[in-house]
């Protein structure tokens, strides 16, 4: 694979084209809500229902997804990996993609679904993203030093949003 | 309020309380307000363009 061009929209479009059930979380989610955050990867929590995993695997084939973690580098993700609660750190033709079986203190796709909103990510592509209050709450659960800076910005974004 | 020559000067509308530019913890609120003036699709473009620019500067 050549050096990938960062294209979050292309990754989202491919997932949507395969009818993958997923929720955008992390920095891209924050930015879609208006937070001034820069990130280099797309974090999504996917449904681990067997049918969805099959669709996800096909989408990952189209995206030429491979692991980017040492030890697994250049290996293709397998169904059993995607079925786990763990985090699959991948590189794709659209840039880094982190597939999260659960996020924070064990929040799955199904658990997060009621706290999501749908946004138009461009060219009519509707994607489901975590609500800003939920993103803040979940980030707080496992906040690292790096997350603390993002949390400051996310909280301010929420405050500005509530003023509108 | 009276002018220098005693002419009545229309009272200026009370200036709106200026919005702070930064939060107490140093977050640039003007940038957040600007981002929020964009559509989600435009915000995603801003994010991608920023990230690509940084990667180019890093030579990646």
In short:
The complex is a heterodimer of chains A (164) and B (60). With 164 residues, chain A is of the alpha+beta class. Helix content of chain A is 41%, strand content 22%.
Q: Can you walk through the features of this model?
A:
- With 164 residues, chain A is α+β, with helices and mostly antiparallel strands.
- Helices cover 41% and strands 22% of the residues of chain A.
- Chain A has a five-stranded mixed beta sheet with strand order 1-2-5-4-3. In chain A, strands 6-7 form a two-stranded antiparallel ribbon.
- In chain A, β4 (87-92) and β5 form a beta hairpin.
- The longest helix of chain A is centred in the C-terminal third of the chain and has 19 residues, at 145-163.
- Chain B is built from two helices and no strands.
- Chain B has helices at 29-36, 40-57.
- The termini of chain B are far apart.
- The interface between A and B is medium-sized, with 30 and 27 residues.
Give the low-pLDDT segments of chain B: none
- What's the alpha carbon Rg of chain A, rounded to whole Å? 15 Å
In angstroms, what separates the terminal alpha carbons of chain B?
Answer: 63 Å
How far the N terminus sits from the C terminus of chain A, by CA atoms, comes to 45 Å
Q: Helix tally of chain B? A: 2
Q: What is the oligomeric state here?
A: heterodimer
Average pLDDT reading of chain B: 82
Compute the number of strand runs of chain B.
0
List the helices and strands and how they pair.
The complex is a heterodimer of chains A (164) and B (60).
Chain A: H1 8-17, E1 22-25, H2 26-32, E2 42-46, H3 50-62, E3 66-67, H4 79-82, E4 87-92, E5 95-100, H5 109-112, E6 116-122, E7 125-130, H6 132-141, H7 145-163
Parallel strand pairs in A: 2-5
Antiparallel strand pairs in A: 1-2, 3-4, 4-5, 6-7
Helix pairs in contact in A: 6-7
Chain B: H1 29-36, H2 40-57
Characteristics of this structure?
heterodimer, A: 164 residues, alpha+beta, 5-stranded mixed beta sheet, two-stranded antiparallel ribbon, 7 helices, 7 strands, 22% strand, globular, B: 60 residues, mainly alpha, 43% helix, elongated
